[in-house]
What we know:
Elements: E1 12-13, E2 40-41, H1 49-63, H2 67-80, H3 86-97, H4 101-114, H5 119-131, H6 135-148, H7 153-166, H8 170-183, H9 188-201
Antiparallel strand pairs: 1-2
Helix pairs in contact: 1-2, 2-3, 3-4, 3-5, 4-5, 5-6, 5-7, 6-7, 7-8, 8-9
Amino acid sequence: xxxxxxxxxxxxxxxxxxxxxxxxxxxxxxxxxxxxxxxxxxxxxxxxxxxxxxxxxxxxxxxxxxxxxxxxxxxxxxxxxxxxxxxxxxxxxxxxxxxxxxxxxxxxxxxxxxxxxxxxxxxxxxxxxxxxxxxxxxxxxxxxxxxxxxxxxxxxxxxxxxxxxxxxxxxxxxxxxxxxxxxxxxxxxxxxxxxxxxxxxxxx
Length: 204
């Protein structure tokens, strides 16, 4: 899931953030990108045409999985405009795709300084923590997102997977899978995971 940057006091909304959601375990990936329509993130700072053009090029490069080239452009964007979280988030995602955990974390933390409550940024940071083995920190981040945005499904699913596969906390995993399925009722994979968990936990 990358973030679109809009020019001249336009809103950044989560309804536009539909691609490249970094998430989940090796064999479990979040593929559903539907998000609640009432989640909106505002960043009301002007952006000149040159910066916006570079940013859009970087977004296209991320779509094409050309992460190194995207990083070059995003670094230029962040040098010229430090008021938007979106370039930092996308930079964090690109670094994470290349396995550069420290660089990814640094970029995402810069994004959070600009917009501490942004659900996408926090969700990506949770992935960084999980991939670096900091499971308690990852859980804390996901829980924070869900206190602000209870219906933000990527974080709901990711915390379920974290509890399930990495923390071996069956109660936590069941709780979040069930909450996820109340909204995303057609997710067959999560239904299978939940059924397996309940069998192991002896829960009906």
